[in-house]
Amino acid sequence: MSMRWVLALLVLGLSTAPCAQDAGTVEEAATTEAAAAPAPPADDPPAVAGDPQRGQEKSAVCAACHGLDGNSADAINPKLAGQHELYIYRQLKQFKSGGRENAIMLGFASLLTHQDMRDIGAWYASQRVLPGVANDGKVREGEDLTWAELGRRLYQAGDAERQIPACMACHGPTGRGNPGSAYPALAGQHADYTRAKLTEFRDGMVWGEGTRGHPITENANAVMAGVAKYLSDEDIEALATYIEGLHRAERQPTTRALARN
Ligand code: HEC
Ligand code: HEC
């Protein structure tokens, strides 16, 4: 048997596995999905590094919600501009497999091959995120602390007493994440989206199963459920608005600035 066929069988085996467990809902899902999403070829070969130009063409259908360059106008749709190719690729696979549950994205991701996902990822990764403005209003009347400042402290230093780790440790001081690993860029993201995600993570949401065989992305999805466990609604609000205002020009925190917190 050729390697190509072995791979095809593997892909088929993986994609049919969840159906066997839950035959009841599959039929209903199949009828609604069949009309919207013609399945990509079963023999979906492994993808190579994405081509941003091809990705731009393939992302035309995504623009209505995510913006032509990945800077979405509507805060309920996350910005994808400046996001890492491999993160986008992995999330699209999660949507398609149903590991990350979202009815809209299930439909759109189902249409894509692995190569489409990487090409589209490469396109958005090549774009620049347009940051918003962090909320400089006071958290409580009569106190100086602003939402942005509270967010900055948590982001840069966490709160050891409450078992909240510094976001910066994984997402970087300017929120750029890390292209070589599982850590997404957060900088400039709509506060509404970040607030919604942090609340879901806090309430125990875990996406999919990570990427098998990859030491860093293994169970990466479970990381945020642990990180967000002790966040209060106030913490989440502060982090979400701070992150929306984060951009490259943000002053890098010094050791002294961190020690002051
Ligand atoms: C009808 C609107 C809509 C369209 C069209 C759409 N999306 Fe989305 N997309 C969303 C929403 C809403 C979410 C947030 C889902 C959630 O909350 O988990 C999302 C989330 C995503 C994410 C995860 C982002 C993150 O930071 O984790 C990626 C990647 C993505 N979409 C890619 C695409 C691609 C690629 C296309 C086109 C093939 C597309 N989307 C088309 C609405 C849309
Ligand atoms: C130990 C590393 C680590 C720390 C610390 C961490 N994160 Fe994360 N974060 C991750 C990983 C990994 C993912 C991607 C999860 C996935 O792919 O399923 C993620 C995803 C996210 C997302 C979803 C991004 C998107 O586009 O949907 C948000 C929002 C987020 N983190 C915010 C935070 C905040 C705020 C903090 C600090 C309170 C924080 N993270 C601390 C590793 C970390």
Characterization of the model:
It is a single chain. This protein has 261 residues and is mainly α. It folds into two domains: 50-128, Cytochrome c-like domain (Cytochrome Bc1 Complex, Chain D, domain 2); 147-260, Cytochrome Bc1 Complex, Chain D, domain 2. Helix content is 51%, strand content 0%. The chain contains 13 helices and no strands. Helix 3 crosses helix 7 (114-125) and helix 8 (147-157) packs across helix 12 (233-245). The structure holds heme C (2 copies). One heme C (HEC) binds next to helix 9, helix 10 and helix 11. One heme C binds next to helix 4, helix 5 and helix 6.
Percentage of residues in helical conformation = 40-55%
Whole-number tally of structural domains: 2
Shape: globular
Number of helices, counting only DSSP H or I runs of 4 residues or more: 13
| Ligand catalogue | heme C
* Structural class by secondary-structure content: mainly alpha
Q: Which segments are poorly predicted (pLDDT under 50) over 5 or more consecutive residues?
A: 1-38, 257-261
**What multimeric state do the chains show?**
single chain
The description of the largest β-sheet is: none
Q: Please report which band the strand proportion falls in: under 5%, 5-15%, 15-25%, 25-35%, 35-45% or over 45%.
A: under 5%
Question: Which fold name corresponds to the CATH topology of the largest domain?
Answer: Cytochrome Bc1 Complex, Chain D, domain 2
Question: What is the number of strand segments?
Answer: 0
Kindly provide the name of the CATH class of the largest domain.
Answer: Mainly Alpha
Mean pLDDT: 81
The end-to-end span amounts to 62 Å
- CATH homologous group name of the largest domain: Cytochrome c-like domain
Taken in chain order, the helices and strands follow as HHHHHHHHHHHHH
Radius of gyration: 20 Å
Q: What's the CATH architecture of the largest domain? A: Orthogonal Bundle
